């Protein structure tokens, strides 16, 4: 059974439409949700957590219909965004007082463990905390009610590499329980390369790619050629391209096959960021 199943999700706004978005988040897995600003990532997350009502489609969380069982499912879901939900005059101990009333499985001892792990003072007001410490507090709060599903919307944005690494370790620990799962939306694709199992790429309100991360990194590549050679490359062989100076670079879906077909051209491995950028510039899945 999957943790999240999204099927045919649609949501129309005056200037944007989410179109037939479908993907799954498996138990024990981390799915990275990528796409440029305005692609539909946050709209998708809002629909999953019940913050907006979709125009069409179905969302299941641990096999239960999100629309019918949303209130009960909230006990199993924790959401962390780059912005704090708490009043700036609150301290960590005040947050615990509020959350204790909202979540049946709230665990004070576990909360204190995370505060200690993150070196967060229980009496210091949120407005006095750095951005990194605020994010650690949000994560400690999310995990202290013992959710099964963690939904993250840009949790590491603007944080320094040391803090990001510490937070990624916590996420990795969380999914060691095979009942747990994470949906992780981020522009920092290097973070996703470290811990994600699957990548879902949304572009223009549609899912362009939904594949295992290791498969993408193993198969995709950046092929390089001169401007005079570019017209000789079959357009069906690349998903996107860019011209620069005296040459061209193309995103290819199967770099081993392209090495056999174009043995005289250089083909380097592609990163997740490369894949996103080249598809966004033009190409078909």
UniProtKB/TrEMBL annotation:
Alphabetized UniProt keyword annotations: ATP-binding, Nucleotide-binding, Transport
CDD domains hit by this protein: ABC_DR_subfamily_A
InterPro entries tied to this protein: AAA+_ATPase, ABC_transporter-like_ATP-bd, ABC_transporter-like_CS, ABC_Transporter_VariousFunc, P-loop_NTPase
Ranges annotated as spanning the membrane: none
Segments forming domain ABC transporter: 4-229
Domain of life: Bacteria
PROSITE patterns xref list: ABC_TRANSPORTER_1, ABC_TRANSPORTER_2
Record Gene3D superfamilies: P-loop containing nucleotide triphosphate hydrolases (3.40.50.300)
Listed PANTHER family: ABC TRANSPORTER ATP-BINDING COMPONENT, ABC TRANSPORTER ATP-BINDING PROTEIN ALBC-RELATED
Name this polypeptide is given: Predicted ABC transporter, ATPase component
Organism: Thermobacillus xylanilyticus
Organism ancestry: Bacteria, Bacillati, Bacillota, Bacilli, Bacillales
């Amino acid at each position: 059974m999957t943790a999240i199943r999204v099927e045919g999700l649609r949501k129309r706004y005056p200037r944007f439409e989410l179109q037939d978005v479908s993907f799954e988040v498996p138990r024990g897995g981390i799915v990275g949700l990528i796409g440029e600003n305005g692609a539909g990532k946050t709209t998708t997350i809002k629909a999953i957590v019940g913050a907006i009502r979709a125009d069409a489609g179905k969302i299941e969380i641990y096999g239960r219909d999100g629309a019918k069982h949303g209130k009960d499912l909230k006990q199993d879901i924790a959401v962390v965004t780059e912005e704090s939900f708490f009043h700036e005059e609150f301290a960590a101990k005040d947050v615990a007082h509020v959350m204790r009333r909202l979540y049946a499985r709230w665990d004070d001892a576990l909360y204190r463990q995370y505060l200690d792990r993150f070196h967060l003072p229980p009496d210091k007001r949120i407005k006095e905390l750095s951005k990194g410490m605020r994010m650690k507090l949000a994560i400690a709060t999310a995990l202290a009610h013992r959710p099964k599903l963690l939904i993250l919307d840009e949790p590491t944005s603007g944080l320094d590499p040391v803090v990001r690494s510490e937070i990624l370790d916590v996420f990795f620990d969380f999914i060691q329980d095979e009942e747990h799962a994470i949906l992780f939306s981020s522009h920092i694709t290097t973070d996703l390369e470290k811990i994600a199992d699957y990548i879902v790429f949304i572009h223009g309100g549609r899912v362009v790619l939904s594949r295992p991360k290791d498969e993408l990194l193993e198969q995709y590549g950046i092929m390089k050629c001169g401007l005079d050679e570019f017209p000789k490359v079959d357009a069906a062989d690349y998903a996107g391209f860019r011209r620069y100076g005296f040459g061209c670079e193309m995103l290819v879906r199967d770099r081993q096959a392209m090495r056999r077909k174009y043995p005289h051209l250089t083909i380097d491995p592609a990163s997740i960021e490369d894949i996103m950028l080249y598809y966004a510039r033009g190409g078909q899945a």
